[in-house]
Amino acid sequence: MPFKNQLISAVVAGLLPVCASAGKDDNTLVVAFEKPLTTVDRLYSIQREGLILSRLTDDGLFYVNPDSLEFEPLAAESYEWINETTLEVTVRDDVFFHDGSKLTAEDVVYTFEWVLDENSDTSRGPVIQSWLESIEKAGPRTVRFNLRLPYPMALRDMAISIPVRKKGTYEGADGMENAAEDRPLNGIGPYRIKDFSAGREIVIERFDNYYQASPKANPAIETMVFRVIPDQGTQQAELLSGGIDMMMGVPPDVADNISHLPGVERKEGNDIRIGYITLDAAGYSDPDTPFTKLKVRQAINHAINREEITRYLVRGSAEVVPYACHPRQFGCEGDGPVYPYNPEKAKRLLKEAGYPDGFAFKLWAYREKIIAEAVVSDLKEIGLDVDLRFVKLNVFAKVRNDKDMEAFFASYGSGGTADASASTGVHFAAGSARNYTDDEALGETVLAAERTIEVAERKRLYREALNRIAEQAYWVPMFSYSQNYLLSPGLEFPVPKDGVPRFWQASWSDQ
């Protein structure tokens, strides 16, 4: 691997004589996307790239404050909880769609009624339908949300998952699976779609009629281009030759190799994404799997040197996480057991569990192969025969969802949500494909936390859930992630605290 990186550095270094900024001269920003988007409509996309784009082309009623990571009004002027299941939102009167029409309360009602329609097949429809009963117009600029149950993360879902659509946007779609296909995006964000070539690039331009009261108002960069470049070696060459201005999610070794070269600047930042290992405590993959035994799960926790993996492989601002959430998330506090690296104790626990000579199993993974290999190495040190099954994400997801894995290494970004519900709800709620515990009491605690408005009680419930997860060693919490960005010189870019870039904050230094 080092030789390969040195070779890449040598190749791209040869491109330095033609190095020039991709967009500084004409106030354009060119960014590399590693994965293609099949649609620019956030209602029909769950990809990280879709979230990044949507924050430029769309607005929801609320947004995530980039500094506090709390949820604040955006297209909403104000809001009020009438009671635990009734929320009234006043819509701003100075917001315009990209076609020039003004945003109205009717548009908001239409948007959420579309999402509530089971036939609309929106990506987050089932989530919204689980807590929202109905929406109605309650005044000239006021809409009322009638919730099925108390749900403190309603503002989060509105901010991250539901951009506002003009009434009639999906007319004629008839609930088609691809309702957004071939429909020009008519958003209300600070940028509008100029050109979309599926799988190739997306061009957006600044929307001059964007409302001035927005925290996204008056972005400095006029045009942004998102080029799909799956290969990071090609991205590096493009950055150094001036074809792009930014790479995101750059592996530390790659960033080390080229960040010292002329024409490249490096920035590092935090990410709410965490790495973890799930153990099949319920015995879904095999009723006789050793992972149904607590001491085996505890042994796995003690066997992995998370400190060294974090320090030498993840690096940057990454840190070991003690519980099943990111430390920056609300409610991510526990006083349950932690499992320091102790291979001798791990061996004793295996012996006490009835496996003095270890056992064989498959560890599944789809990302960060070098980290998965380090985990395998640690587990082999305590006598386990581990077969690393490193596969593509679609294969991984299918086998995981079929509950056919004894153990798997994965990561989760919580959609940038600074709340423990984004992690515990996905991984430990009853019925979740990622829940390998079969712990009904834990599922009930997680559900109660999600449905409790009172702050102190929510914290107590999350602590109870996180302590239970730790006591039963259902997971091996590994580390938080650190994000590396490589930029063209002169590009000013505030590094996000949650790993989700906010490009409306970017600018060229001479502007």
Structure explained in plain terms:
- The chain is α+β, with helices and mostly antiparallel strands and 511 residues long.
- The chain has three domains: 27-40 and 189-264 and 488-511, 3-Layer(aba) Sandwich (D-Maltodextrin-Binding Protein, domain 2), CATH 3.40.190; 59-183, Dipeptide-binding Protein, Domain 1 (Dipeptide-binding Protein, domain 1), CATH 3.90.76; 273-482, Roll (Dipeptide-binding Protein, domain 3), CATH 3.10.105.10.
- The chain contains 15 helices and 18 strands.
- The protein has a six-stranded mixed β-sheet with strand order 11-16-12-15-13-14, with helices on both faces.
- Strand 2 (62-64) and strand 3 form a beta hairpin.
- Helix 14 (440-450) packs antiparallel against helix 15 (455-471).
- The longest helix has 17 residues, at 455-471.
- The chain is globular and about 70 Å long.
- The model is unreliable at 1-21 (pLDDT under 50).
- Pfam families: SBP_bac_5.
Brief sketch in words of this structure:
Keywords: Peptide transport, Protein transport, Transport. It is built from 15 helices and 18 strands.
SSE topology:
Layout: H1 2-13, E1 28-33, H2 48-57, E2 62-64, E3 71-73, E4 76-83, E5 86-91, H3 105-116, H4 125-131, E6 132-139, E7 142-147, H5 154-160, E8 191-197, E9 201-206, E10 223-228, H6 232-241, E11 246-247, H7 252-258, E12 265-279, H8 294-303, H9 306-314, H10 343-352, E13 360-365, H11 369-381, E14 385-390, H12 393-401, E15 407-412, H13 421-428, H14 440-450, H15 455-471, E16 475-487, E17 491-492, E18 507-508
Helix pairs in contact: 1-6, 1-7, 8-10, 13-14, 14-15
GO cellular component, one term: ATP-binding cassette (ABC) transporter complex
Keywords: Peptide transport, Protein transport, Transport
Domain Solute-binding protein family: 70-423
